[in-house]
Amino acid sequence: MFADRAKIFIKSGKGGDGHVSFRREIYVPNGGPDGGDGGRGGDVIFVVDEGLNTLSDFRHKRKYCAEDGEPGGKKRCHGKDGADIIIKVPQGTIIKEAESDKVIADMSEPDSKKVILKGGRGGQGNQHYATSTMQVPKFAQPGQSSKELQVTLELKVIADVGLVGFPNVGKSTLLSRVSNAKPKIANYHFTTITPNLGVVDLENGKGFVIADIPGLIEGASEGVGLGHEFLRHIERTKVMIHIVDAASTEGRDPVEDVYTINRELAAYNADLAKRPQVIAANKTDAIFADDEDPVQKIRDEFEPQGIKVFPISAVSGKGLKELLYYVYELLQTVNPEPIVFEQEFFPEAIDYAKLPHTIHVNEDGFYVVEGPRIERLLGYTNLDSEKGFAFFQKFLKDSGILDELIEAGIQEGDTVKMYGLEFDYYK
């Protein structure tokens, strides 16, 4: 089964922690700090692989994590950087933040390579914190935290022209006649369940890319049938060819079919229904009515609206040349730039250090305060020094934690716990 949507978890690597150590050499009784820096965490990188055409690989693996950076070592040794993780996707894949459904990146270029999550920066060793007044720093900077996201991947076929229409109207037959594509063709509904791409070559080097999209039924914009799978792939196309069964071999009205398709396009994305359209009145070789010309009926309905109608037979090839050259000329009137989805969500703007903290009372009656910013602060603050403890007290006040502890009912003498730190509360 064709897979054109997947949801995965991605996580960059945490930066390695800086190291605390001091020179210990013979004849050097009071060596200075020599703790090395931590390594950088690995990035999460998406790249386009032109050998892929589905997202089926993501059905079996849904978690992708880059490596953490290694901590620094003695003698100013720098920790090893974490390895990046490379995630390969087909051309045309859209990466979205899962909760907001906002676009992070559009992998529409054949050589696209995007860093979606950057790894954490390595922490500095204690060698960086020696000063004239603090010659023996006993603390180092922790590595910057990793970043993580739930993302959805959506594959949207890249084509200039999309063939749209109800099942069994002849889209695959037309594609096989006018391009190098070899779609599966059979006389039953939903023969096509995967988009088929083909290149139409005209004279003098002219041509365009055309896509046969899975058949549409009423209610597609609400996900009925192949609904969203159909509509997702039509979003990049610049011109649409509506193929209808002019002979009504299955009893449907071709005029109503076009209106139904346009309603579904507008319901899914209002911009789709505004794009240039052409109607290909197919199966004219199967029209035997003497009293009424069904093609003329279609023309009378849509040509006053500016939509050109071409009678064709995908089986015999009749009328195809006129249709294709008209479509080519129509393409010259639209913006030649590929349809690219602009970025709406910026992972680098997420400041994990500013995520909210929490306060709760545990079973021992301790007031437990937790949060990324607090954990990071404790990692590089020397609470054994007077200056370090004063800085920590100022942080508790400025961040509002002291006020929140009072609101939570803390009394003098109660114990506050923050990760590995415990202290008694006094005003």
UniProtKB/TrEMBL annotation:
EC number: 3.6.5.-
Any one of the GO BP annotations: ribosome biogenesis
Enzyme class: hydrolase
Residue ranges of domain OBG-type G in the record: 159-332
Keyword entries, A-Z: Cytoplasm, GTP-binding, Hydrolase, Magnesium, Metal-binding, Nucleotide-binding
Cellular component per GO, a single term: cytoplasm
A GO term for molecular function: GTP binding
Domain OCT: 344-427
InterPro entries: G_OBG, GTP-bd, GTP-bd_Obg/CgtA, GTP-bd_prot_GTP1/OBG_C_sf, GTP1-OBG_CS, GTP1_OBG_dom, GTP1_OBG_dom_sf, OBG_GTPase
Primary residence: cytoplasm
Cellular compartment(s): Cytoplasm
Cofactor names: Mg(2+)
Protein residues bound to Mg(2+): 172, 192
Binding positions for GTP per the UniProt entry: 165-172, 190-194, 212-215, 282-285, 313-315
Keyword Nucleotide-binding: yes
Residue ranges of every copy of the Obg domain listed in the record: 1-158
Any Pfam family the entry gives: DUF1967
The protein's assembly and partners: Monomer.
Record function comment: An essential GTPase which binds GTP, GDP and possibly (p)ppGpp with moderate affinity, with high nucleotide exchange rates and a fairly low GTP hydrolysis rate. Plays a role in control of the cell cycle, stress response, ribosome biogenesis and in those bacteria that undergo differentiation, in morphogenesis control.
Alphabetical list of HAMAP family matching this protein: GTPase_Obg (MF_01454)
Annotated family: Belongs to the TRAFAC class OBG-HflX-like GTPase superfamily. OBG GTPase family.
Listed NCBIfam families: Obg_CgtA, Obg_CgtA_exten, PRK12296.1, PRK12297.1, PRK12299.1, small_GTP
Designated name of the protein: GTPase Obg
Organism of origin: Anaerobium acetethylicum
